[in-house]
Structure prediction request, 102 residues.
Amino acid sequence: MEHITCKKCGSANYVKNGIVRNKQRYRCKDCKCNFTQGDNRGKISVQAKALAVLLYGSAKASYGMIARIFNVSRPTVLYWIKSIGAKLPEPNIDNCQVSPGC
Prediction:
């Protein structure tokens, strides 16, 4: 038999709580969290998200194209770009001289 623990708190104190998408759902008695065992959704790596931001930033790829490449939805790509972009520093243009290379 499979050892089942809560995904949130790690407790083994749970009860059955219905079926969702043909999988048994459980409810933790300690933290009241609902969870299913064996969540098989894929996780996208940080490197793949960075690649998506680079593709978008190079002005060569749209949200739709990136979504098709990584097999995710367009709003997910938008979330990646916004969250990673918020962590980047503001560009410094004060030191820029008036020249063709600037």
Observations:
- The mean pLDDT is 85.
